[in-house]
Amino acid sequence: RPAFDAERAARDFPILAEALPSGKRLVYLDNAATTQKPTAVLEASDAYYRHANANVHRAIHTLSQRATAQYEGARDKLAAFLNAGSRDEIVFTRGTTDGINLVAQCYARPRLAEGDEILVTELEHHSNIVPWQMIAETTGAKIVVVPLGDDGSVSLDDFKAKLSDRTKIAAFAHISNSLGTVLPIADMIAAAHQAGAVTLIDGAQAVAHARVDVQALDADFYVMSSHKLFGPTGFGALYGKRALLEAMPPYQGGGDMIERVSFSGTTYNEIPYKFEAGTPNIAGAAALGAAVDYVEQFDMAEVFAYEHALLARATEAMEAIDGLRIIGTAPGKAGIISFVMDGVHAHDIGTLLDESGIAIRTGHHCAMPVMERFEVPATARVSFALYNTQADVDALIDGLGSIQRIFG
Ligand code: PMP
């Protein structure tokens, strides 16, 4: 396998070569929001509709067989990618948000009662907070929050201190989307299990930037979004341990999730189909399968090392800019840099960088409690993917330097 080459990888992503209206080169540094799509993924989606479009699991005709093979083939690919024990433990969803809501409604809601606790951390994305608040409201359970350190880290000791025999579920991110913090999830999962709690890991930011092995982690539930892994939007997966999924009631009712329907009573399909009511996003699955193939052509350890080196160089250069403060400096963090600049609102940083063709995210990053913790209304956020290069970092540093000269 040839050594990983980000510039070559960038050529696989047609949008990165598109001329912006300003004539500037696109410098895409908003990968934590969504990643761009390589040609192989675009072609898989197109090819599905051109050559295989039909409904899955139903008809015996050729196109339906092709559609089913692509849909179920993607399940096999994702099961291998996450190292699930079985393909049946992969439930296709609309994404991370949908996966968390599924677990909240189907696992937590029937089991939790007054006095039970749901443990989350202070750095969670709203999608790993609000579904639990909804469960707390209907069951009387309580949300308990693990506080963040000043560097944006989550310490195992603080997590353990919040666990109790009342903790029924512990739900936490693998990597923070707002700060880049990598949580000590293997140890957190073990500690949660010792306390008798079930764990849900929000892997939205992790799947493209860290090795995920759900069996080695002993995760009970692990959720991901296709669009953060170079696949299409509105699609994703929930990994769940077989025994847990089998013991859960269905999420939604409809076609495909049943075994037999009658007005005297209906029986449900086996997992994972029990959780996949209605005609699914077949093209989404086909394209996610292509995205998994795309990343698996690389030695991912080499890709992650590359991203870390890029992060280290960008961090060093940004720290040298007067009045710029990075929020979230936990050791071993992933390729996300949240920052504020004296005298410039985050939105103005975003707008000015956009004039130079540089795409970043500004705002609360769907993590308002993090903004509150660090007492800022918003941050500007740069986030890397495997196709970002030193030239992208140089453009960013140039852009930030001019903003500092104007406002500083
Ligand atoms: N959790 C984290 C950590 C995220 O970064 C995101 C996406 N920003 C989500 C959850 C929600 O993912 P989706 O919008 O694809 O459901």
Automatic annotation (TrEMBL):
The keyword Transferase applies. Keywords: Pyridoxal phosphate, Transferase. InterPro entries: Aminotrans_V_dom, Cys_dSase_SufS, PyrdxlP-dep_Trfase, PyrdxlP-dep_Trfase_major, PyrdxlP-dep_Trfase_small. Its cofactor is pyridoxal 5'-phosphate. Pfam families: Aminotran_5. Transmembrane segments: none annotated. One of its GO terms (biological process) is cysteine metabolic process. Gene3D superfamilies: Aspartate Aminotransferase, domain 1, Type I PLP-dependent aspartate aminotransferase-like (Major domain). It catalyses: (sulfur carrier)-H + L-cysteine = (sulfur carrier)-SH + L-alanine. PANTHER family: CYSTEINE DESULFURASE, CYSTEINE DESULFURASE 1, CHLOROPLASTIC. This is cysteine desulfurase. The lineage of its organism: Bacteria, Pseudomonadati, Pseudomonadota, Gammaproteobacteria, Salinisphaerales.
